[in-house]
Amino acid sequence: MQWAEIRIHTTNEAVEPVSNLIHEAGASGLAIEDPLDLHLEHRDTYGEMYDLNPADYPQEGVYIKAYIPVDSFLEKTVQQIKEAVDDLTKYGINIGTNDIKINKLDEEDWATAWKKYYKPVQVSDRITIIPTWEEYEPDSNEQIIIELDPGMAFGTGTHPTTMLSIQALEKYIKKGDFVIDVGSGSGVLSIASAHLGAESVRAFDLDDVAVKSTLSNARLNRLEEKITAEPNNLLEGVHEHVNLIVSNILAEIIVKFTQDAWNNLIEGGLFITSGIIQSKKQLVVDKLQHDGFHILEINEMDDWLAIIAKKPG
Question: How far, in Å, CA of 11 to CA of 43, rounded?
């Protein structure tokens, strides 16, 4: 079988929505080539543990690569992806050039092409994420290893928004906490929460592929008894009393369910949000404060940030 490598040139702001659209089109092995990754020294000890080739990266914006089978529907699928990305401008998202290039690969080439992007990644003081096919020896007994199959759904741990989310979880989660993960993707934040001491995690995602991926990755990490996942539109119809809610989505989506997050948190509960580009910072801060949250801190990495908010009490 032949596979087509699709490369979309877009912006940092559009990474997550474009990635989700590509997955919905049936693509596999998604990878992000961000030139900011070439300058990781400001991330202290965190970041990818392998050499990057500057020639693979755009001078501005990012490349998103994914792989789909070559068949009679290829041209139509690519056109649908382009149109769906164009439609993101209706939501005020800067998509950049939205230039799409196609490169056909044999199955053997495809099988190794997308895996080269995924190596062990240290994302916080204690947590390292490794793809399932990589061998890795932890540096100490304190280190937490998350095994992940990144071919299933977006969220491999390499993106700044995921790193920021995990670093916030490591700082704030307490043993025995009950957690909700909104927009779980690959399940990496659910798994991190359980490893860090959460008693149970309820994961929600609108995409059935993401729900299956969360459950599969939970099993990989032997955490299926702590993590449940089900399809749901944000927190619609959810009525819980949890200690912490984490969501790495988009600013425009986060502001749609801040009131539902408030209603599902106990007094003193925390709402960790990420997927927020710098230009949308005030939008999220204003909405959180309007709904009663107190902003504890705002952490930044590259052009992205995470906001940790508290329900007073």
Answer: 21
Q: How many residues does the chain have?
A: 313
Residue span of the structural domain in which 215 resides: 121-310
Cα 86-236-252 angle, rounded to 5 deg: 35
pTM of the model: 0.73
Q: Mean per-residue pLDDT for 287-312?
A: 94
Q: What are the C-alpha distances in Å from 78 to residues 21, 113, 267?
A: 11, 20, 47
Is there a contact between 160 and 224 (Cβ–Cβ < 8 Å)?
no
Higher pLDDT, 155 or 212: 212
d(CA 232, CA 204): 6
- The Cα–Cα gap between 307 and 276 comes to 9
Among 51, 85, 117, where does a domain finish?
117
| Same domain, yes or no: 98 and 178 | no
Looking up tokens 């959180």 gives 288
Question: What is the distance between the alpha carbons of residues 300 and 11, in angstroms, rounded to a whole number?
Answer: 18
- Number of domains into which the chain is organized: 2
| Same domain, residue pair 155 and 49 | no
